[in-house]
Amino acid sequence: MKFAIRLLLPLLATLALADLARAEDTAAVDRGRYLARLGDCAACHTSDPARPFAGGLRMNTPIGAIYSTNITPDPLSGIGGYSLADFARALREGRAADGHWLYPAMPYPSFAKLSDADVADLYQYFQQGVQPQQQANRKADIPWPLNLRWPLGLWSALFAGGERYRDDPQRSAQWNRGAYLVQGLGHCGSCHSPRGWAFQELAQDQGDARYLGGGTLDGWHAPELRSATASGLQQWSEAELVAFLKTGHNERTAAFGAMVGAVQNSTQYFTDEDLRAVAGYLKSLGEGSGAPDLARDDGLSYRALAAGQPASTGAALYLDNCAACHRSDGRGYRNTFPQLLGNSAVLGNDPSSLISIILKGSRMAVTEGAPTGLRMPDFGWRLDDVQVAELANFLRQAWGQRAPRVSAAQVAALRGR
Ligand code: HEC
Ligand code: HEC
Ligand code: HEC
Question: Residue with the nearest Cα to atom 29 of ligand 3?
């Protein structure tokens, strides 16, 4: 009897340990699943929703198209053969397991900030929480010699491989969490920061005033997020920022263009605590930038429009095509049709988003909090370049607003995209 117990005890202990290890694995997979949402891995690595993370999404670059790769645990076509160290190197330094350099369409300059613990949890998820899919990677459509990958190694040496995120002890834990999310997994700067001659982001954190200073990709301008201008986030409360990232809209505006995907695939899944951290961090960037300088509304354009007597071709186009939804005072309908008054897309120095949304229209993000997905119709087929420019110029000067003029040539350049 004693003998049997002596035998049994270690066995039970081993079983209990195995159970513990399994529970820890499951917890790591669950944490990794959430981190994959924060990093929006699906946006680029899923092209067919029936085959999550199998890659194959076409992405245009200035030298030709590339395709995202299979990051499911399939041993041959995916990353089943990756060790944790291989995975960490791909994520942070942009180098695949076989040593080839990755195009920086993969946001590894941002992911370099990730903590070891988060990389390990992502690894567990991509090895154990994702269904393996057999799907060979597609070669890039880039002609020789531009398709050689070794110059990417030089690029990486110059612009990537930065340090892990380090907490700023002067700031609160919440601020540091927000900074870590925005700079690291959230890779917000990949769209919202300006890029340089080699397409590198010009700054990676708030220490440089160009960080999140605004960027333009594929005809959409991602505005500055530094709360620095009157039309920007300085006017938004933290709660409005949280609502925008959670549902895709708030009382002022709705996400459109490239931001729709970011909300749908990623930010709507952030916990409220993480969203508050992100909002707090973004609001802190505008500290000390002074009072908003929005021009006072002279009421003239509103009165003329309301009386049905538009003072210009642009105003007439607005009345005919836009005022039904955005109203003649530009205030729209709360939570339904965005307000164009004081709107960063209307007033930004870079008018790409204003022009592109008139040409192509947009559909609001479909989220758990806002499932309707209202549409803004496209007007590119109905209005020519001169008309779109006149309409844009009316908006940039309407209701007392003052923003630089747009030319028909700028419209023509965006129409082709
Ligand atoms: C903005 C688009 C984008 C996002 C977001 C993105 N990736 Fe990538 N990733 C790519 C592209 C494109 C490649 C292939 C680059 C190449 O072939 O040079 C790639 C390559 C990789 C590779 C190398 C695999 C291989 O063998 O080629 C890994 C691993 C990887 N990504 C993991 C992730 C993870 C994990 C996330 C989320 C935390 C993520 N990626 C988010 C675009 C993206
Ligand atoms: C794929 C590119 C892309 C990524 C990644 C991205 N954004 Fe955006 N974002 C845009 C574009 C384009 C706009 C302009 C359209 C709009 O206002 O919805 C925008 C708009 C916004 C706005 C509204 C600003 C205003 O003045 O109206 C906020 C806030 C914002 N983004 C926050 C974020 C945060 C936080 C992240 C990272 C978690 C992020 N974005 C990641 C492209 C992106
Ligand atoms: C049927 C209603 C409707 C009409 C007509 C309409 N819009 Fe919109 N507009 C919308 C909706 C809905 C959105 C939000 C789209 C999104 O978030 O993807 C929007 C968004 C916008 C935005 C981006 C603002 C922001 O912060 O989200 C601008 C700028 C804009 N519209 C300008 C115009 C102009 C100019 C016209 C006339 C040529 C026009 N709209 C006609 C419904 C409309």
Answer: 354
Does residue 75 have a cis peptide bond before it, meaning omega lies within 30 degrees of 0? Answer: no
Rounded-to-integer distance, Cα 69 and Cα 138, Å: 8
| Nearest atom in ligand 2 to 267's CA | 38
Ligand 2 neighbour 364 (Cβ under 6 A) = no
CB 122 within 8 A of CB 73: no
Cβ–Cβ under 8 Å, residues 93 and 161: yes
Mutate to test the pocket of ligand 1, among 35, 102, 139 (most ligand atoms within 8 A of CB): 102
Which residue puts its alpha carbon closest to atom 7 of ligand 1? Answer: 106
Rounded Cα distance between 224 and 214, Å, is 4
Tokens encoding 134: 């057999």
Are the CB atoms for 258 and 217 separated by under 8 Å? yes
- Ligand number nearest CA of 257 is 2
How does pLDDT run across 130-186, given as a tens digit for each residue? 999 999 999 999 888 888 888 898 888 888 878 999 999 999 999 999 999 999 999
- Per the listing, tokens 């071709």 go with 313
pLDDT value of residue 112: 96
Q: Environment class of residue 295 by beta-carbon count within 10 Å: exposed (0-12), middle (13-18) or buried (19+)?
A: middle
- How many alpha carbons fall within 13 Å on the CB side of residue 149? 13
318: Cα separation from own chain's centroid: 30
239, HSE (Cβ side, Cα atoms, 13 Å): 1
Ligand 2 centroid to residue 192 C-alpha, Å: 7
Q: How far is ligand 3, taken at its centre, from the CA of residue 375, in Å? A: 8
CA of 167 to the centre of ligand 2 (A): 24
What was the pLDDT predicted at 289?
55
Note if the bond before 132 is cis, omega within 30 degrees.
no
Chain position carrying tokens 């999550």: 52
Give the closest residue (by CA) to ligand 2 atom 15. 256
